Amino acid sequence: QVQLVESGGGLVQAGGSLRLSCAASRLIFSDFAMGWFRQAPGKEREFVAAIAWRGDSTRYADSVKGRFIISRDNAKNTVYLQMNSLKPEDTGVYYCAARESRSLVLPMSTSWYTYWGQGTQVSVSS
Predict the structure, then answer these.
(1) Could you give the C-alpha distances from 14 to 80, 123, 126, in angstroms and in order?
(2) pLDDT by residue (tens digit) across 32-89?
(3) Is 25 helix (H, G, I), strand (E, B) or coil?
């Protein structure tokens, strides 16, 4: 079974930065599109960013454009989310997701993704 393990979450002040990592195993990583989602308390899980299998196509939620950067290292089976200029509204549990796809189209729907990690907490204080 595919495993996705997130790390790098924590508590940070507004304006600060964090880098999340998601290590994938038991899959051919370069065959998979990868995504990041987040869920705040009492809210639905929402799309943050996604990256295609080769890393040459990315997509971002409007709320994080210009602040977050998604990247991947296929040699390390890892996807990253660099989060800069963090705001209190970025607080939530951040989840890594994967779907086997070599398309450059990156849907924002949670239902498109097949595998999910357990999540890592990000808390941004004002």
Answers:
(1) 20, 9, 5
(2) 999 999 999 999 999 999 999 999 999 999 999 999 999 999 999 999 999 999 999 9
(3) strand
Closest to 24 in 3D by CA, of 107, 99, 111, 103: 99
Q: How many CA atoms lie within 13 A of 98 on its CB side?
A: 28
Token pair of 87, please?
């705001």
What span, in angstroms and rounded, lies between the C-alpha atoms of 7 and 126? 23
Identify whether the C-beta of residue 36 lies closer than 8 Å to the C-beta of residue 30: no
Contact 45, 116 (CB under 8 A): no
Which SS3 state, helix, strand or coil, does residue 55 take? coil
Rounded alpha-carbon distances, angstroms, from residue 38 to 1, 5, 76, 108, 111: 23, 15, 23, 12, 14
CA distance 40 to 48: 12
95-126 pLDDT, tens digit per residue, is 999 999 999 999 999 999 999 999 999 999 99
